[in-house]
Automatic annotation (TrEMBL):
Keyword Lyase: yes
Protein name (database record): 2-oxo-hept-4-ene-1,7-dioate hydratase
Fumarylacetoacetase-like C-terminal domain boundaries: 71-259
Keyword terms, alphabetized: Hydrolase, Lyase
Pfam families hit by this protein: FAA_hydrolase
The species this protein was found in: Bacillus licheniformis
The keyword Lyase belongs to this UniProt entry's keyword annotation: yes
One annotated Gene Ontology cellular component of this protein: cytoplasm
Gene Ontology MF terms: 2-oxopent-4-enoate hydratase activity; hydrolase activity
Superkingdom assignment: Bacteria
C-alpha cells in the first residue's frame, strides 16, 4: 500500500468512528496488507486524533488470550492507544447512539512507576516497575461491518478501542499473585464472563513485557506514569441500551458503568 492509500485508509477509519458507521474491512480491497502497513495506518489515525486536540492516556494490548491468538492464527498480541476522550468516569455512562456495536470486557491495567525499555523485557522487570494496579472495563467497538476483521484490519483500527472505565488505583501489594486473581464481568447483576489474570498470556505482566519489546522495534518505550491496559481477561460481551455493567477484580475492587440509549 502506498503512502497516499495509507493516509486515505486512516481517514476512512477516523470518519467511521466519528460518524458512527461501519466500513468494509480494508483487506477486502487490499488482501496483501501486512502487519507493518497496518501499524502505519494506525499511526496515521493516531496523528489525526492528536491533530484534533485529543491526547494519549496510554497503550493497550489486545488479543492477549491464547485462545483468541490461536483463533486468529497469530503469534503475537496487538497494541493500540487509549485517548483522553475515551475515558468514562467510574459509575458513569456511555451512550449507545455514539457507538456502532459496542462490546465490553474486563481487564487489569498497570500504572508504571518507572520507564520500561525493550528489547528483552521480562515479566519480573515489569512487576518491579509497576506502581499501581487498576480494575478496568474496556468497551471495544470495531469500525468494521459485523465486528469482523483479520489481524491487519484490527491493528489499523486502533485495536477496536472505544471507551475505557478505570476503577480506583490500588498500590501494588508486594506478594500479590495477579495471575491467580479472579475476574468477573456482570451485566444487570448476572455474571456473564469469568477468568483469572493468567488468561492474559499467563500473567498480565507478560503482556506489558511483550508490549515493551514490540515498541522497542520502533525505538519507543513505556513511560513512567502511563496507564497500560494489559488485555481482556474475560471474553467480550455485546452491550444493549439500559445495561448496567460491572467488573470485579479480586484484590483490586469493582468498576462499573451503565449504557444509555
Ligand atoms: C480487538 C481488541 C481486543 C482485547 O483486550 O483483547 C482487545 C477486538 O477483539 O476487537 O481489546
Ligand atoms: Mg481490551
Amino acid at each position: 500500500m502506498n503512502t497516499a492509500a495509507l493516509k486515505d485508509t486512516a481517514r476512512l477509519l477516523y470518519l467511521a468512528e466519528t460518524e458512527k458507521r461501519e466500513v468494509e474491512r480494508i483487506t477486502k480491497d487490499y488482501p496483501e496488507l501486512t502487519v507493518e502497513e497496518a501499524y502505519a495506518i494506525q499511526e496515521e489515525l493516531i496523528q489525526l486524533k492528536l491533530w484534533d486536540g485529543n491526547s494519549i492516556i496510554g497503550p493497550k494490548m489486545g488479543l492477549t488470550s491464547r485462545a483468541k491468538m490461536k483463533q486468529m492464527n497469530v503469534e503475537e498480541p496487538i497494541y493500540g492507544y487509549i485517548f483522553e476522550d475515551m475515558i468514562v468516569p467510574n459509575g458513569g455512562s456511555i451512550r449507545m447512539n455514539e457507538l456502532i456495536h459496542p462490546k465490553v470486557e474486563a481487564e487489569i491495567a498497570f500504572v508504571l512507576g518507572e520507564d520500561i525499555e525493550g528489547p528483552g523485557v521480562t515479566k519480573e522487570q515489569v512487576l518491579e516497575a509497576v506502581a499501581e494496579l487498576i480494575p478496568v472495563l474496556e468497551v471495544i467497538d470495531s469500525r468494521y461491518e459485523n465486528f469482523s476483521f483479520t489481524l491487519p484490519d484490527v491493528i489499523a483500527d486502533n485495536a477496536s478501542s472505544s471507551r475505557v472505565v478505570l476503577g480506583e488505583k490500588v498500590k501494588k501489594p508486594d506478594d500479590f499473585k495477579l495471575d491467580e486473581a479472579r475476574v468477573s464481568l456482570m451485566i444487570n447483576g448476572e455474571v456473564k464472563e469469568r477468568g483469572t489474570g493468567a488468561a492474559v498470556v499467563g500473567h498480565p505482566a507478560n503482556s506489558a513485557a511483550m508490549l515493551a519489546n514490540m515498541l522497542s522495534r520502533k525505538k519507543q518505550k513505556l513511560a513512567a506514569g502511563s496507564i497500560i491496559l494489559t488485555g481482556g481477561v474475560t471474553g467480550a460481551v455485546m452491550l444493549q441500551p439500559g445495561d448496567r455493567v460491572s467488573a470485579q477484580v479480586e484484590g483490586l475492587g469493582d468498576v462499573s458503568f451503565s449504557v444509555k440509549p
